[in-house]
UniProtKB/TrEMBL annotation:
Residues 35-83 form a coiled coil. Belongs to the GrpE family. Signal peptide: none annotated. CDD domains: GrpE (cd00446). Participates actively in the response to hyperosmotic and heat shock by preventing the aggregation of stress-denatured proteins, in association with DnaK and GrpE. It is the nucleotide exchange factor for DnaK and may function as a thermosensor. Unfolded proteins bind initially to DnaJ; upon interaction with the DnaJ-bound protein, DnaK hydrolyzes its bound ATP, resulting in the formation of a stable complex. GrpE releases ADP from DnaK; ATP binding to DnaK triggers the release of the substrate protein, thus completing the reaction cycle. Homodimer. The gene is grpE. It is found in: Cytoplasm. The keyword Cell inner membrane does not apply. It holds the Pfam family GrpE. InterPro entries: GrpE, GrpE_CC, GrpE_head. Keywords: Chaperone, Coiled coil, Cytoplasm, Stress response. This is Protein GrpE. HAMAP family: GrpE (MF_01151).
Length: 210
């Protein structure tokens, strides 16, 4: 091989190396540009994703708030409905309270009238039976509307139902026992509308004046 051919071959080799380097450089540059473009695209898409996630979170928060408001509103409506039902029930039960209290005066008068009539006397039997029938009819009518008598004779004294008018020591009777009913009490559907006026037994040696 001559010197000239050797120089020509070396020139060809150098030219190929440069060409390869240039091609590689261009390829790397293109890849870099594509990577930059892809990165920009990813960044834009990520921003969109972030915006969508924020919008979703806001929507979920709004739904949660509205759901809570609906639950509270429903609870309030239920409470109003329950209170209204209770008020109606109370009104139905105790609407007759004033009327019943007035009728108790009539009952008292009829009972006092019976106490003055001698049922054994022939001339007073008809009067007694008439007054007694009137009294029983009135009591029966009142009972239909929830009015019941409180007659605690020989029962333990109950300050929630009875009003003690006096106390007396009675041999053989336990203290705080109702020994006499001066005036019966009455309840309307379980609620006291008049206490029974009673005399109560006391323990021996107890001074009721103290």
């Amino acid at each position: 091989m001559t010197k000239e051919s050797t120089e020509n071959k070396s020139a060809e080799d150098i030219s190929a190396d440069e060409l390869a380097a240039e091609i590689i450089g261009q390829a790397e540059e293109q890849v870099g540009e594509q990577l930059d473009t892809a990165a920009e695209s990813i960044s834009v898409e990520q921003e969109k994703i972030n915006e969508l996630e924020l919008a979703l979170a806001a929507a979920q928060s709004t739904v949660a708030d509205q759901k809570d408001s609906v639950i509270r509103a429903k609870a309030e409506v239920d409470n109003i409905r329950r209170r209204a039902a209770q008020d109606v029930e109370k009104a139905r039960k105790f609407a007759l309270e004033k009327f019943a209290a007035e009728m108790l005066t009539v009952v008292d008068n009829l009972e006092r009238g019976l106490a003055t009539i001698d049922a054994e006397a022939e001339e007073q039997k008809a009067t007694f039976e008439g007054v007694n029938l009137t009294l029983q009819g009135l009591l029966s009518g009142l009972e239909k509307f929830g009015v019941k008598a409180v007659d605690p004779q020989d029962q333990p004294f109950n300050p929630e139902l009875h009003q003690a008018m006096s106390m007396q020591e009675v041999e053989g009777v336990a203290p705080n026992t109702v020994i006499a009913v001066m005036q019966k009490g009455y309840e309307l559907n379980g609620r006291l509308i008049r206490p029974a006026m009673v005399m109560v037994s006391k323990a021996a040696g107890v001074d009721t004046q103290a």
